[in-house]
Each structure stands twice: as C-alpha cells, then as structure tokens.
Amino acid sequence: MHYNLDLAPTLAELLGIRPSAKWDGQSYAKTLLEGADCGRDYLVLSQCAHVCQRAVRFDNWIYTRTYHDGYHLFPNEMLFDLENDPHEQVNLASDRKDICQAAVYKLTEWHDDMMSSMPDAIDPLWTVMREGGPLHARGHLRAYARFLRATGRAHAAVELLKERHPGEQVD
To answer: What CATH code is assigned to 41-130?
Structure first.
C-alpha cells in the first residue's frame, strides 16, 4: 500500500536523485525494480469537506470512522471486507468489533505519529469539527429538513437528523 505522496521519492530514486529529507513520502522503487514488499502496513485517509471522516485501509479491510455525517446519516463506524465485498455494501462493524478495535488502534497510532511530526500539532479534521463540521452543514439542518419534506423524503430522515444533530433547530 502506498500514498500518492510516495510517488515523488520513488521517481527521484528511479532517476538517481536523492529525495529531500523534508518529503513525507516513502520510495517504492524497490517494488517496481525488484518486486520487493516495501509498502506500508496500512493507509489512513481523511475527508473533511463533504463529511468529517477518517478511514484506515489494512489487510483486506477498510474501516471508516464518521465524526460529522454532513446530514448523510452515515453510521459512526463502518467496516468492510474488501476481498468479499469490494463495493462496500455490507457494513460488518457491529459483527467484527475485534477488527474495528484493531483499526481504531491504527488510527490512533497514525494520529500520534502525525501530531508529533507537525510543528504546531493541529489536526485539520478537529479544526473543521471545532468550526461546526463541513461548511455546507453548518446551521443548515432546518433548510435541509424542508428540502427532504419537499422531495418526499421526510419519513424518518428528519427524526434521525434531529436525533443525530440535536443542537440544531428543525421545523
């Protein structure tokens, strides 16, 4: 497993150029040249524009933790077996707490590594959360509830949104 940011050090190594010590990426040139396994044990992905989520991809699993659902009613935890469910249709989080726990540990380990490498140690995801979540969702639950009713989707959605986001007013 590799991040996009691993491409620059890989290309540098392939071209015989010493990668900058300031780069976060790790070269995978040995994988390309020798078939060596020099990938990462897991990858962490963050998303803070549409919703606030962080996911960890490891082994055959992807685990996603939702911090703010952006009014899309995602569960707090989602776990998918990518080998048997490549389209991520069956959430196994409630059935495989052991895998969720391992994933949460990896997220915590990654977070600690990232915070220790940053001079100001400010997590962008938590900055967005402190600001009220994704921009499109801040203070717009009432308008979204009206939209749901107008488009025939008021059933249960408004109640779920009220329960999930109790601090916001809904007509």
So the answer is: 3.30.1120.10
